[in-house]
User: What shape does this take?
Amino acid sequence: MNQMALKSHVKRVLLTAEFLIVSGLLFSQQIVTKVLDASSCSQEITVAVTVENLNNVAAISLVINYDPGVLSYSGYQDKNSALNGGFFFVNGGNGSVVFSWVSLNAVSIGNDTLIRYNFTSAGGVSDLAWDTFTSGNCEYSDFNGQQIPAIFIDGMAAVSQPDLTVFAGNDLTLVAGDCVELSALVSGGIDPYTFQWNSNQTTQSIYVSPKETTMYQLIVSDSLLCFANDEILVTVLPSPKQQTIELNSGWNSLSGYINPSNPGLDCLLVDIAEQAIIMVDLNGNYFLSGNLSNNLVDWNISEGYYLKANQRCELVVYGDELPDKTVQLSEGWNLLPVLSECEVSVEELFAGINVQIVVSGIGTSIFWPEYGINSLEYLFPGNAYKVMMSNADSVTFPDCFTIK
Assistant: This one.
């Protein structure tokens, strides 16, 4: 419902309540007439008029105003049966509905529906306001022609037109590891809209990286709870290779031997976006999911990383292995990735390399050849290792072999 119109409606209700308290008219003989709030998801809308304490009434005059740019009067229904005797007249148009009834016999209705008005709408929100400012337009009289105390409470009509529609997008095809943004196009209805995808996401646009062919379904609701739905089929072709990396709760060292088909971290980490708190490289560049100030944008297979997770999870990397598994190491500290799908002997990898120290990225295991210390023994896929070099050099990971 239009927020400005809603605030206006609330204000009118509060002013009505204030008037009642100040005037002291809240007595049992007072007639209360309400036009009830109404909403519709189609072009047609019905508005109910109810009464309370309507007793011993011989004449009724009611005029209600509406916005003719939104509503067009089309008739009435459910006139209260107590009004079947006497003269009855209803006419609507040009922004008003006039109701008249008079009889030689007074009637009592008590608390009930007096009548329902039918409207056709082009869509939008309209006030339904009683014309209490014009003498004689809104009043009740008894058999003696004496006016009966009455109050009139306004309402509001809201119609979701034109029809609410949504288009989730054309069907598409991806390779496993690719990402795509699905963005819904919405028209009609009355905003604000709410979005619910079957992937449990609740935004108009979502970023997905399905690992298998998936049908994404979307339901959109407007402010009147009218809804529309659509779906999009994302066909997923197999990736050449993949690597699954187990991540623990807390800090992890991280690397991969698969060169991602899409190296963007917003894509690569999309499936663990709720678990991955932060990812950083050795230079302090970082990536936070959904943070536009990230200065670590893409995954570099030739580098290692640190990633902090709030719970155990799996990172799956899709792509190809590099034909050249050589990593350049600079003087000083490096964070070495493991470009191998199997564990690698640290002594064999650094044979002939002037390395000072190799330390497990997370932990205390160490390879310190100068002092003959090697509690590290092997480098494992998915991890990264801190390497201190006395001068720049390179290491080349061998093809996998069976450890003896």
